[in-house]
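Researcher: Structure for this, please.
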Amino acid sequence: MAAPHATTTPPGARAPAARTPATARGQRAGVRAPWWFVVPAVAVYVFIVVVPSVNGAVFSFTDWNGLRPGWSFVGLGNYADVLADRAARDALVNTLLLAATATVVQNVAGLLLALGVNRVVRSRYVLRVVFFAPVVLTPLVAGYVWSFLLSPDGALNEALRAAGLGALAHDWLGDPGTALYAVVAEIVWQFAGYSMVIYLAGLQAIPAEVLEAATIDGAGAWSRFRHVVLPLLNGAVVINVMLCLIGGLKQFDQVMAMTGGGPGTATETISTAIYKSAFSLGDYPFSIALAVVMTAVIAVLAAVQFRLTQRRSS
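Model: Predicted structure, C-alpha cell format:
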C-alpha cells in the first residue's frame, strides 16, 4: 500500500500555525470588533439629534404651545398655515436665492483664490493664511462688523465719498433691493477661504506629469484648466457645492446680525422665520412645521445636487 503523501517544510522555514477553532473565532471577532467603537458616538448622536428631530416632527402635527403638557393632533393644519403664510413663502424664496447666489459666487471665488495661491510665488503661504483668516471668525461677529461697514455712515460709503464717488453711496442694508446681496457678499468674504482650501487640496493632488503632457500636446492655459484640471477637481467641486448649499439654506447668524430679516421681509430666511415664530410670537407648532419644511428642502436639494454631480463625474 502506498504511503500517504506528506508535506515537508523546507529547512529554515517556519511551519504554518495550525488553525484552531479558537483562532477562527478570534479572527471573526476581530472583524466585528471595530464596529463597537462607534457605538458611543452613534448613541450620543441618536440621543441629541435623532430623538429631538423625531419628536419635533411629531409635534408639528399638534397644537402644542411649548409650555403646557397637554396637546392634540391637528393633522396637516400647521403645514397648511405655512403654505398660506406670505411671510413664510417670502422666507423660502429668499433662502433659495441666497443659497444659490452664495454657492455660485463662493465657489468661483474659492477656485480663483486656489489657482492663485497654488502658483510658485514667494508670498503664497502668507496669502493662504490671509485668505483663510476670515473663516475663523464667529459668523455673528463678522456680521456685526459688516453691518457697521455697510451702514449709511459706514466705512464703505465714506470711502466712496472720499474718492469722489459720493453718488454711489447707498444704504446697502436698508434698501430691499440690495440688502440680501449685501448679506451674500459678507458670506462669500468670510467663507471663500474655506472653499479655497478644499480646491487647493484638489489642485495639489493633480499629478504634474498630466499637466506637462497636456502642455507638450499644445494645450494652452485655458484648455489645460477646462479639459484637465476641472475634471480632476470634480471631488472638490462636489464637496464645496454641497457645503455651500447646505450652509446657505440654513443661514441664520449673518442675517440676524446684519439685517434681522429686514427691511420688511427682504432678507428673511427660513431659519430667522423659525426663530421669530417660536421665540418672538410663541407660535411653536407653526415654527416646528416650518423647521420640518426647511429640513425637507435641504435634504431634497442636497440629494439632487449630489446625483447631478455624480452623474457628471461618471
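Researcher: Any notable elements?
Model: The CA atoms of residues 206 and 232 lie 7 Å apart. The chain has two domains: 35-75, 88-313.
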